[in-house]
Write a structure and sequence with these properties.
Blueprint: E1 2-10, H1 15-25, E2 30-33, E3 40-46, H2 52-60, E4 66-73
Antiparallel strand pairs: 1-3, 1-4, 2-3
Length: 81
């Protein structure tokens, strides 16, 4: 599985609607509310053969209440041990 993150800017007043829609769709691993330029930070896992661009376009950006997204593709996870 390949992890990646999407920062989501919601339309005004729609953060909880979007977060609940993501949770109900059961496509996100973790959903966080954030402060700053984006309202939500969402972690996803997809199969290594899945096109991340198509996934975001077809599964995430189509949810009502989303104004903008910023996808962050990760390379390596580091741990303290």
């Amino acid at each position: 599985m390949v992890p990646f993150f999407v920062q989501i800017k919601c339309k005004l007043g729609q953060s909880y609607v979007v977060a609940n829609a993501l949770a109900e769709a059961e496509i996100a691993s973790e959903i966080y509310s954030t402060a700053g330029n984006f309202d939500l930070l969402v972690k996803f896992y997809v199969d290594k053969d899945t096109d991340i661009g198509h996934f975001v376009n077809e599964k995430v950006q189509v949810l009502p209440g989303i104004q903008d997204t910023h996808t962050i593709i990760t390379f390596k996870a580091f741990s303290a041990s």
